[in-house]
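Dear colleagues,

As part of the handover before I leave the project, I'm documenting each prediction I ran so the next person doesn't have to rerun anything. This entry is a single chain, and its sequence is reproduced below.
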Amino acid sequence: MTAQPVRLSFKGASGAELAARLDLPAGPVRAYALFAHCFTCSKDLIASRAVSAALTRRGIATLRFDFTGLGGSGGDFGSTNFTMNLGDLKSAADFLAEHYEAPSLLVGHSLGGAAALVAARDLGCIKAVATINAPADTHHVTDQFKEQLDTIRSDGEAEVLLGQRPFTIRRQFLDDLGEHRVTEAAAQLEKPLLVLHAPHDETVGIENATKLFVAAMHPKSFVSLDDADHLLSRREDAEYAAEVIAAWASRYLAPAQEPAEGEAPDVMVRETGAGRFQALVTAGAHHLIADEPESVGGLDTGPSPYDLLAAALGACTTMTLRMYADRRGLPLDRALVTVTHEKLHEKDMEKMMGDEGAKPDRFTRKVTLEGDLDTAQRKRLMEIADRCPVHKTLERGASVTTEAGS
């Protein structure tokens, strides 16, 4: 089970804003992972989504992002190169370390796999690396536009067709490829490596997996992806690779920290850096996103603070009703509570001046009771609804003490 993905953005190596998604598990986060997509692909490819989903099911939060100039990210793809991809990966790792936790796992697909191997040497936080259909050298990517290589070298650039989409490739991109040695990076990795490759991959041949695997030191593992294609375009292939990576990575990551028995976990809220208001709410082993609507400058990626307060009242009401109905043996099939919140205007307050209970906030709660209940039972349950602890807290008010954190 996973929580709602968090939309994020951060500055890449060129200063461009990079679009990202953080997939969080519904339970405790045992570690964070980074996913690097394939050449000219995006974070939303089937393989990217499948790997991220599988990792979150095992408690591994995963950040997938679009490299500069691709997908939803800013910047000019034609001005990028492999070195910039490495810079984007480092920026992503730095962003996670600053706002969440430094990544422990690096997963790369195709050229993203090559980037993962090279980047991992300089990212001390990485404990394990997994590659999917990765080339053993960066020059391999030029096979996809080899007919235009002479034009790129002579004219400085050329427009090439990749995946039925036009891209501008410049000479500096080719020159930069020669600065990196992927197989050498695998040999110097000194971290657990998982190499996944499809034997019939027509884009990056299986011999690339052999070179990477032979070069790497133990612990290392190889998994054949059978008849999958390069992009893992069949969902079943992507999900198989994802499950293998998730199971393998679990061996090298620390177990999730569970709260001590009987210990009430604190609720922690921290800004994510996405938009003006987006915040990650952590309550023990559980995570959710709080935000504001777009109408007030938010991204509308999660409930607002008052939505959360209304949700607390509604949830407490249903739980209180369930406890009472079960204890008294009442045939309550389901309780449904709808809560609306409104701020009373000054003129409304003036009309209620004679009412000592007049308050500037009003929560309206609509309780629907499903089941074979008689009139007396329904009446009693409606009375019980007013006894829920959150209801009482809202009516009485509460004191709030503010202290300076470390």
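The radius of gyration is 27 Å. The first strand starts at residue 6 and ends at 11.

All the best with the project,
I.
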